[in-house]
Structures are given as structure tokens and as C-alpha cells.
């Protein structure tokens, strides 16, 4: 039976090439645009979900208001993790991560400045599924001055030699660290990205572990026990550190916690689900690898609209040809074909056409993805199509289109008596007109919405790109790591100014665009009002 169906499909392809070219080609272009957007949306949603305990993992975020300035911290206080383990029985694990930028790393004659070396508690593998190639996860970070390398970092410093047991010197003081294991590269869909992971206890040598009120470095993650009532735990978590804050506020401000809150100030913690960190970046000192949930929502709606327009166009062209097949269906019935068999043939034909369009759309996407990336400003890789949600969409879309486009000729026309169809007694014009008219109207409405939205967003982007930032940013270069010049910085600056191509030079403690904050308390002399 399927062999006969295939022959009929090939015959129809040869018989009506122009119509099928328009129908399949239009659907293929629409599907290519939809898959381009869908692959990016699903990839962004997948961030940090590869961790097996992601649904029970939360990041501690802090909300502080002093005077008129509210601040939301992605970081937390150093002693919070241990306090949560001690005071909250719902907490199964608490682990801390500290990213340190621009650290000098020495290995014999090699010297590199690593963008970020991360420090982690020894139990980090109990919370996150970072894969170890070599080493025992229970012990690799248990001792001070231990460090793990990714495969790329190991190759950079040691080549083909096994680095486990070897040493590196890290920092200006050249502290010796022993390599205790090799890590698989962190998947790109993670907000935690590092090439080196060192033991957190290495930092505690120079730091106090009970310093409340210091939000400068630490990211704290909690693994909550299964079966925990999260609504009740949220309320409990907000207030449990108050007993630690009371003496800290009294020492810093000279007032009690109640007096601090009575004047309109507050300090509280909340929990942020691990899977929502990437797309919800409303905190200061956020990690650099983040997305935008609003932009993703707009992209997703746009992709759905494009798919609707492409599908309606395919359905319109399919139903336009349906009446031409009425006599063919009547003849098949007369020579003995059952209605079920004819319905199967029509649906199979429609499925094959939509499948051809899908294959063409994937080919178009692979061919033009660099051009699309340049046009859209979004970096999408062909590997995004391998996301399980995108693959599920690729499988589902042809089935949905088959049902929508094939239902009218398959179920409506085949129910008539063959004699009535062949004698021309069946008129389908009115029904067909209402159906196609509704689809065409909906198609134009969606098209108008897309055009209007595109023009509006384009104008907003142009406004942002050409808005005067208040300073001349052209031909201004930033030299990194000049903090290491120490007493030689003036000499360095003077040597730069000797170059006739350099008009001026200046030092600054921070860039105006820097995201990391330093908060201090200020008050006028003789006044108790603090800012």
C-alpha cells in the first residue's frame, strides 16, 4: 500500500510542480525562521538544567537598603553557608564559589594572566554535576592550595604530560598549588564558567570566616532536602540571619536592628532557583554569562507568529487545490478504494510535503546561519538544534501541519457520495471560501503585527545605539591589569604620553561601565544621617 502511495505522491509532485514549489518553499522558509528562533529560545531555557539536582538548588541573594539607595546583591556574606547548615535542617548542602579575575599563574617559564580562577568548597560536587576526568570528587578540593584544571587548561600549562600531582604558582606572591584532578569543560549552557577550580580553604588563610556584612566576593548555593515545603522555608530563610546581623549593625552603625529597620532600612535574604539565574539578572555584581527573559519572550512570540503565517499559507494553498481533487476521490471510491484508505493517502501526501519542507528548512538554516547571526545580532550555533526541546519541536511541527492542512480534503470531501461528486452536485465554494477567508484574514493580521513590532523595536534599538552617553567614547582604549604597576604607574603613563599618537592618558580605580560595586557608609560631620 505504501509503495502505491509513494507513486501517487511522486506523480502529484511531477504534475503540479509550480503549486508545490510555492507551497513547500514557503513553508520551508517559515520553518527555517521558526527553528532559528526556537533553537535559541530552548537553548537559553536549558541553562543549568543539566545538573541532576537543579530543581533543589538555589542561590542566596541579598536585598539591602540604607538611606535612599536600595541594592540587590547576587553575592552573599562569607559565613552564610555554614550558618544555614547549622540553623536550617531543611538544607542538605551549602557550598560557596568565589571567582577571582586577572590572577597571574606561573608554571616554570610560562606565565599567564587567567581571566577567572574560581574557588569552591570541597562539597561543590555534591551540589553541581561538574564532571571529573581524573581525581576523587570527595578529596580533590579538601586541602588548602589544591586546584583542578579543565582539559584545555591542563594542555596549556603541561602539554601532553599528566598534570595531576604537579604544581602551579598562583598570584603575585606565587603561592604553590597542587593539581589534584582534571575536569571536563563546563557545558556552555551554565552560568558558572571557569578553567581552574581551586579549594575554598585556600582563601580562608587570609580571610575571617565570620565576617557578616561583607558582600564583596562570595556566591552561596543551597541544596534543599527533598519533600521540603518551599513556601514555609522561604519565609524562614528570610529572617534566620537576624541574630548574626544584630551585633554587626550595632558595631557598624551604633544602632539596633529594630532601629535600623524603623528608619526605613532593611537587610534580608531570598532564594533564587538555579534554573532561573541565567534569565533573571536584576542583581548587582552578577556573573557575566547571563541572558534576558524579556527578549527571549519577545523572540518566542515572534517565532510562533512566523510559524502561524507559514502554516496558514500552506493550509490555504492546500485547501485551494482540494476541490480539484474531488473527482479523483470520487473515481477512487467507484473503483473500490475505501474512505479510510483515501484519507490515509491524503494525510500521507500532506505529511510528506511538510517533511520535505522541514528538511529544506534545516538545510537553509545550516547554509545561512552565519548571515542570520550577523543580521539579528544573536549568536546561534548549529549545535543548538540538537537541544532535546528543539528536536521535539522538529518532530512535532510536521504532524501538526499535516493534521491542519490535510483535514479538510481528507475528512470533508471524502464523506460525499462518489456519484454526487462526479455529477457536479456538490458545491464546496461557500465552505471553502469561509475557511480560506478566515485563514487569509488571520494571516494578514499576524503579518501586520509582526511588521509593526519590528519597526517599533528597530527604532528603539537605533535610539539606544545613537543616544549620547555624555562622553566621547571613540578612540578610547582601556589597558588591563595596570593595577600591577604599583609605584611604576606614573612612569608608565609618562612613557605613553611620549607617543605622538596618544593625546592623553589617565588612571581610574574602576570603569564607569563596571558592574561590580563597592558599598561604603557615609555621613556628614556632626550628622547622624547615614548614606
What this model shows, in words?
The protein has 531 residues and is of the alpha+beta class. It has 2 domains: 2-46 and 292-463, no CATH class; 54-276, no CATH class. The chain is built from 15 helices and 11 strands. Strands 3-4-9-6-8-7 form a 6-stranded mixed barrel. β7 (167-170) and β8 form a beta hairpin. It is elongated. The termini are far apart. The mean pLDDT is 81.
What secondary-structure arrangement, pairings included, does this model have?
Elements (H helix, E strand, L loop, with lengths): L1 H14 L1 H29 L11 E10 L2 E5 L6 H8 L3 E17 L2 E11 L3 H4 L4 E3 L11 E5 H8 L8 E4 L4 E9 L12 E4 L19 E6 L5 H10 L2 H12 L3 H6 L3 E8 L19 H28 L5 H9 L4 H38 L11 H25 L5 H5 L6 H38 L22 H9 L34
Parallel strand pairs: 4-9, 6-8
Antiparallel strand pairs: 1-2, 1-10, 1-11, 3-4, 3-7, 3-10, 5-8, 6-9, 7-8
Helix pairs in contact: 1-11, 2-9, 2-11, 2-12, 9-12, 9-14, 11-12
Keywords:
531 residues; alpha+beta; 2 domains; six-stranded mixed beta barrel; elongated
Summarize the structure.
By secondary structure, the chain is of the alpha+beta class. It has 15 helices and eleven strands. A hairpin with a 2-residue loop joins strand 1 and strand 2 (69-73).
Q: What's the rounded overall pLDDT mean? A: 81
Q: Which regions have little confidence, pLDDT < 50, spanning 5+ residues?
A: none
Kindly provide the radius of gyration, computed on alpha-carbon positions and rounded to a whole number of angstroms.
Answer: 32 Å
Structural class per helix/strand content?
alpha+beta
- How many angstroms separate the termini? 82 Å
Shape, principal axes of CA atoms: elongated
Which sequence of SSEs, written as H and E, runs from N to C?
A: HHEEHEEHEEHEEEEHHHEHHHHHHH
> How much helicity do the residues have?
40-55%
Largest sheet: 6 strands, mixed, barrel
DSSP E strands, number: 11
Strand order of the largest sheet: 3-4-9-6-8-7
Helix tally?
15
Please tell me the total number of domains: 2
* Beta-strand proportion: 15-25%
